[in-house]
Amino acid sequence: MIIRTHVHARAGLLGNPSDMCGGKVLSFLIEDFSAHVRLWESPLLTFQLHPQHDRTEFADLSDLVSSVQRHGYYGMQRLLFATCRRFADYCRERGLRLRKANFTLQYETDIPRQSGLGGSSAMVIAALRALVKFHRMPAKALSPRELAELALSVETTELSIPAGPQDRVVQSSGGLTYMDFSTKRGRHTRLNSGWLPRFGLAYLTDDQLGTWESGKVHGQVRYRWGQGDRSVVRTMREIARCAEAGRKALPRRDLKALGRLMNRNFDLRRRLYGDDALGAHNLALVEIARKLGLPAKMPGSSGAALILLGDDGETERALRDAYGAAGYPYLTIRTK
Catalytic positions, please? Predict the structure, then answer.
């Protein structure tokens, strides 16, 4: 029997990146992109590495350089190894018995790399869910909260990658979620996804990406927050208040208020991180929408822009054309 699991990409609607600093966020899932895991019993424990993300053979040095620019130095291999290691430790610590059987794990993902859409966390959670099914564990053995915490520990504990809890919580919960991280374990509230308006998404191509990771983007600001830097603490609180206000605007379907909050969220983030850290491409992704009068912000650490759409089809066509002319992929997303 082949076990199949998948986890959708996520978009930070409001409040990000305050989740890394005890803040509050609103996030939802994007049905258009997802990470998939296939797992089946086999004589040896085997990882079938992806022919593009985990390459080990190259035509020449230029081909290697191009691959590193597109897929980074590690691909998904270290993430999957770390997921299995943390899963085994978690089960041992809690006295959960595992089957004495091996498996083969195969993966696929169409979540754009380095787009800030939770690609790595989606893969980790998909793998964890497959492992739970393979070892025939009851569903209650790992609640959505525990699944999110375990997934976060894969990166923060096992790989020492600075990461926030937002991605894992919404991807474990499965839909529009309001998250308050002002307490130790946080408070998470699942909201009505039907409140969500229409959104567009523009993102970078592989050729436009560098080799950075989200942890590197957030590391310095998080360190300053931990040291009590007043400007960072104050700005993170203001960003968190965007999520608080957005939670009230969504059920009222107050798109004007939601748009103002999205723009403010981005402006606060830009002021905190600076244009050099955000990069020319990220600024362009947001500014293209704003020039057409549409609110926009980054849904994650970098690499994409989330755009609030109205009912004006002509403006949306102009938006699509503008992104196409600039060389950026664009789509109207399906929310979940």
Answer: 167
